[in-house]
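Risk register update: the risk of archive-format incompatibility is retired. Evidence:
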Amino acid sequence: MHGTVLVTDGHWNKSVAAIRSLSIAGLDVAVTETSRLAAGMLSKYPKDRFLTPSPITQPDLFRKDILFIIKEYQPDVLLPMELTSLLLLSKHRHKIASQTKFPFAPHGILLKAASKIQATDAAHKIGISAPKSLPITAKTSAGDLIVKLGKAIVLKPDFGEGGRGLLYCGNKKQLETALKNIPANRKYLAQQRISPGGAGIGVSILMNENQQVLARFCHRRIREYPLSGGPSTCREAICHPQAEADAVAILKELQFQGVAMVEFKEDPETGTAVFLEINPRFWGSLPLAIKAGVDFPTLLYKWARGFAFSPPEVKLGTRVRNLLPGDLLYLIAKKGRVNRDFWSFHNQTDDLLCLNDPLPALGRIISPLLALYDPQLKSVFKTRQ
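Archived output:
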């Protein structure tokens, strides 16, 4: 297969995984980021590398630079890897579509899917198991929330990624404090917290414009950081028919197209996978899907170009971890008290570490230090909007 693809947001492990898989598939890959020392920029696989302003701190300049790069580089397909970049560029789909393929849902649908409030409403509408939820307003009180949702409540920003901005409450005092700490300029959702002990489940889908499923993948979280809930640090490929069916149903309800990962949490009392949210972009556990045989970046490229392909088979039981920094932070948080499988390296690979492409790991180690002196790189580590 021959062609060119432009991948944005080269800092992240998922971006490195996409760059590697697309290049190995025979494509010429270019990557963008705010620093040449970002993990994806240091990979041996990109044919070209472009520095851009931050989409968070300088959105207008970022958009202009991407449009300029597209015009000059002329990629066949543009793949934004982060929600901020995706939503920013989707506003200008008409300009992008005249230059390259942009295989994502229309802007309004992306917003509905990314909104925890609207996605939860859609789940309730079609009868999918989801926690009781209430949008927070200026009149919302802790007492009212406890009456309607119970004492165990989580407050979620309507738009947010990676577990950032979540506020967990177990009693009225904690809830009152959390409500006071909600930023005035951000919408929040109050949600009944599922009993602890159930595993997190993610269902990844590639869906065409007619809402036909072209590829699917399901994984279970083995470890995550922060311990209270955040990005997974180790996951395993599984089959979960109920979660997979519910994920397809809610994406169809939203008339979605492109790639998305739908998050669930197993209720330890019933075993039911309870809907949590939708990530309507490439997700952090993407390296696992690729390793297990479902190469979403390459499949998305093929769909965008009109190339035919058969639904890939999943290698169940495949495990991939995120050692830098996820599992190391998990180890510290657990004070070294971890299961024996944490130390096993023969049955699990890593998101980033690769003998044939070692420099991205170096970038992962040094980029947080450089962020102390680089405002644009620092914005990468801040709360994603």
